[in-house]
Amino acid sequence: MDNSHLRRIIIKIQARLSDDDRKYLHFFFGDDIPRRIRDDPTLGGTLCAMESLFDRDIISGDDFTYLINAFETIGCLDAVTILKEHQQQMKLTHVHQSMLSLISIMPPLPPSTAEVFADQYNSLVIEGQKFGSAYGTHFDDSTHPYFTSSHYLNGIITHDNNDSIESYRFYYSNSSDNQNMITSERHGKQTLSFKKDFYFDKNEKIARVEGQYLKKIITFSNGTNLTMPIITGLQFYTTNGHASPSYSGNEEGDMFEEEYKNYTLWYVTGRSDEYIHQLQFYWYRTLDSD
Length: 290
Fold this sequence. Notes:
single chain, alpha+beta, Vitelline Membrane Outer Layer Protein I, subunit A, 2 domains, four-stranded antiparallel beta sheet, globular, Jacalin-like_lectin_dom_sf, Jacalin-like_lectin_dom, DEATH-like_dom_sf
């Protein structure tokens, strides 16, 4: 993974930080960096802190939302602006690459159909919202060694630890190969009990996603308690009106949902450790049969 661009941005930001900014920033990092680095709020200490975040996969050239949240929390708005501008440029680049990948496997489009693509959202791929927080390690199911642009999310395996909060693995079917279903890595570490193994019929596409946030108190090794949103209760709905089972348990949280007209679910990214802290869905454009 190429982190060089983000490293250059971090160096640029250092000149904008006061001594107090560094102290607040190191306090925010908490147990995410070693104690000896946290207690050294100098320029060298802050650079070591950033290196530690890279080493622990808390930030990377592909995902640095954690840093944006940190600088927002301590009020360094210049740093937030710089990072968000870089993040937006990355999104545009990623969507463009995804569009080229899909175009390469599609047959030529007649002019009338091509106009449909241009009229709505003007993109073959939509990068959905980020639901949840920036805590945990980033994952991206599209990096599976056998994932191709023909795969699409088609099912789910759910586990939990009897606390109504799940870990997920996702099934991906292939629109061009009846045998080539792949399974993602497990996201989250709730493995005590097996809840459900479910997938939709071949070529049935997901059009809407629902889920909820639960506020959970997490206790860190130093005894600090922090309340964080945890993703749970994930449920999928297809273009045919079918729904996957719901596993929301007895606890009720804040609901979220996402769908885009004329788009179906492609794959998911997010952040997780013990629990799933964030999910982000990618959607690709579909054409009406008529």
